[in-house]
Fold these 3 entries.
Entry 1:
Amino acid sequence: MMKKIISALLLSAFYVFAQSSSNSNENDEYYHAHKGFYFSVNTGIVLANLSQKTTSFPDKNVEKEKENYSGYLGYDEFRLGGSIANVASIYGALGWGYGSGRYEDEIERTGTQLHREGSFEEDGDDDFRFLLGIGGEFYPFQDKESPFYGLFLGICPGLIIDIVTITDHYYNSIYDNTITVSFANIFCRFEIGKDFWISRRWSLGFALNYTIGGLEEETGVEYLNEIEHESNSSYSIGLMIRISH
């Protein structure tokens, strides 16, 4: 499904480029274009929801843990790449954010020892987010008289890591020190927005994006029955203000 979406966007971009390349006139005083070098700064707010499920086998027992985090982040992102005649831009993205939210944890242990379970909830936990990705933006409307002129669609896959700081705990025991929990996800972000020209090469705009992610991994030694399975998932909604060249 993802390959079909990317292919459709690329075909749309090449089709629009073929139409616009013969009609653009750089001698026109009203001519604007993202062309050649591409640079964009994006800043805004993100609502993040993270989940991590872990199954491990300590001391011939089965321990299941489910961790959830939800909160708001202030987020900044730099994009650097190249543009083709105001039709498409390909870029590398580097982003980071900081915010706070609510962390929840549930643990259940079964096996040869006494059955135990517990839960933990805490507000005001810090989240540090780091993002690395490669993406593209496509401008399907080239008619300057159209109200949709400047509208763009974007897609960006990559890696996101959220580091959440929480109070150290185990079942019903709570300690004074703090620890960090990492949520790592391979993500794909879908974006829609609109740019408004403020000079011949620079534009100011806004964008709404939706990000979905997931990652699974296993660690430990299987023949010693120490395998630990970890499953991560996430989704985010962001509203950004941007300036682009």
Entry 2:
Amino acid sequence: MHPMRKLLYHRGVDDHIGTYVTDYVYSGVCFLLCIQLIVRIYHERRKMTSEQRMTSSCCKISNWLPWNWPKEKPTAIGISTYAVLLFGFSNFVMMLLGGLTHQFLQTVEPYNDDINNLWDWLIIWRVGSSFSAIVCFSLLIMTEQMITQERVFRIPHTIRVGYYIIIFATVVCFFGVNYIPLTGKVKDPFSIRQTFTVTFGVVVLNGIAALIVVVYHSCHKTTRKSTRPYSTEYEGRYSPSHSLNSNSFCDDRSILGFLSCNGSTNSHRQVRDDKRKNRRRLELFAMTLAPWVFIVAGAANHFMKSTCADSDAAHIDLGCPLPDSFNHNALMHVMQIVSAISFFVAENMAITRRSQMDASNIKRVATSSTIYNDVINSSDITDDKDRDVKNNNNNNRNDDVIQNVIKQPDVIIIPELEETERMKIPKFPTNLNYETLSTNNRHSLYDNLSNVQV
């Protein structure tokens, strides 16, 4: 230990092993989380159609313009996904450069107050701290997307555009402020107090938005249920082609079999809904846990600073509750690691939920088209039967109509039948007894032909 070193923050930077080791761990965890999310984005995009890929592409400039949000056709990969990815990458660079400075800044000799031999590490330190501006920008994007995707309230396009213009200009200014100490006009060029204050203020906004979302969902448990075009119960009961493949189809036609079949279907549906609700609760919990763990980490660092930052042996001299090799800075880094993991877990669960919703929407569209085709086919068959019945009734009224009948392969046109009467023929007859109509038909076409031959 150099004799001139008396405080924890030598040259304004903590050089204890616990601090820079946790910096490296934080950086490595963020790097792995970013790789995992990139792989997830790749697999999700492979399952999309070409139109969905263009909608969720990060390379298309129009997808990043605020006045094009929210998308009319949201996909599993959205702006919030790329914001979380930007958050992880910024923390990866920031903590890596910070850990290097924490470890090697104190090794520069001679150890005096002259800063001329510290320019290399000062630049590295300031480049790392400037990435906190990108962290704030990604957090502000996540805050807006959280409110929009959860539909807490609808944000007008003008307000959204103004919001992004303001935060973009603010972030650019904040990015430049981090390089002011390089001018030599600052007393402590390694101080990052302003960076900490702004970053934790942005995280507080994100945490408040997460609490609003949780309260909103707690007060509106049945929200948006009535907006669904039709329920899954309708699909199983009223779609002929879908019901054969659904769980509601039962071979046992008895009453007990019917009850047991429907009971098992309802129980399976209940289990599926319970699992979906549990996953949704975990997603909201992770989404709320992430910012507030970050806030608690900053608060713990601030309040423990008075007893842990004024001596190299603060645990013995000042009664710091933490050991010297794992001080309040190391504790803050560990809690921030938990926060970063929670951000990524929440976004991964949101991707899964949006992907399942997209798949269910495709299934509903297919089912609705199946129902439509079934109805059209049944109506065509019914129309043929209606035409036959109408022709038989006309034969009963007047046998002379037979000679004016014009037959076509599938359509029978009766000249004496007016257009208005043909339009009144119901497309969906309810009760028609064809056997009675055929027995009452005393003069059919074949009878008249036989009479002619005689």
Entry 3:
Amino acid sequence: MRPGLVANKLLRKRLGSNRDEESLLEIQSSIQHFIPNEVSNDQKDTHKYKIFVSTWNVGGVAPPDDLNLEDCLDTCNNPCDIYVLGFQETVPLNAGNVLVPEKSRISMKWNSLIRSALNKNVPPSTKNQDLKVGEKQKVYPVKDGDSETSIPQDFKCVISKQMVGIFMSVWVRGDLQRYIQHPSVSCIGCGIMGFLGNKGSVSIRFCLHETSFCFVCTHLASGGKEGDEMHRNSDAADILSRTRFPRCPSLHLPRKILDHDRVIWLGDLNYRISMPEDTTRWLVEKQDWDIILENDQLKVELSEGRVFEGWNEGIIEFAPTYKYYRNSDKYYGCDKGKKGEKRRPPAWCDRILWHGKGLKQKRYTRGESRLSDHRPVRAVFTAEVEIIKNLNAFKNFLVSDRFNSVETHLDIFPSNDCLCNGRLSLHI
């Protein structure tokens, strides 16, 4: 956003006197000397933050009131700065639900459970603390290991979105919330008739300081027959080509998924194992993951360049996450005596991928909740984030004696969070 437009919007909204209006043009012309349109690299620092990402197909089962997400989130042993949780099949994928994109009751219940798990160990004294005007906000970057923050922080939901059964929710530390800018959502349906939301994606983007992030939660085409992987490839390509975030003429914000600085793709990708079922089950019992993964459809499609070109996935060292009997550790179809039971060989349907520089995966594991026929999958990343070193000249300009009457109507910038991607962007 051009500085003159920011000043105009900010002052006209907050001020009303003729005297202040007369100062506006002078401010608009003078402000250009303090805020450049672009910020050079030598004016930026790089901090690291820890991001927790999880994906879980909950099989159309509503979460019980006593569902404990603490183990899934691993908040005690591995606290992070940002939590991104993606779900699939939060509602049964029947005809009635497919025609209703969003059921707020379900998403509110999941958010309530997430909030309880993230904030269980937060001391009351740290909750809902708002900074006074002019008070400097602390920044807690992380090392390559654990977070430097020793006191648990209150977590807040900055954005969440449901499309039929796909639901994604983003949570950040309360003290980090003000640095999250320009959050927005884009939903793509790839299901029935090629556009309904029983399959597809919910994508969320935002800027953290000067770095843009995009998270894509997906549920791709199902099916265990030979050739079904091509439908999944097509869904992924469709999501990449059709996803567009809202245009903002005054800001150069990325609109496509791959235009963002840091991109993470999560979800039930539905890729199966291209091996005879009996062989797959035997190798799973032996826990010989390497041989099975050589026949994993996603690994094969990636290596052949037919999907997710340039994307990365961590080393899989955990058992296949699909398909289990509910409330059991047994894979579906292992009881051959059951009549009318469809055979579903084990597979790693639930995956997390990433694209772009500045992301380093630290963990890639699965949870053990028995709520659904899938096990949740989780990853922890260290993300590099660019931060403007200082804007002291601009701050001093606003609080100078010359414009003292203007300053009394402005929220003094608590930190260097008023630029995103080298563009001025103030909180109004």
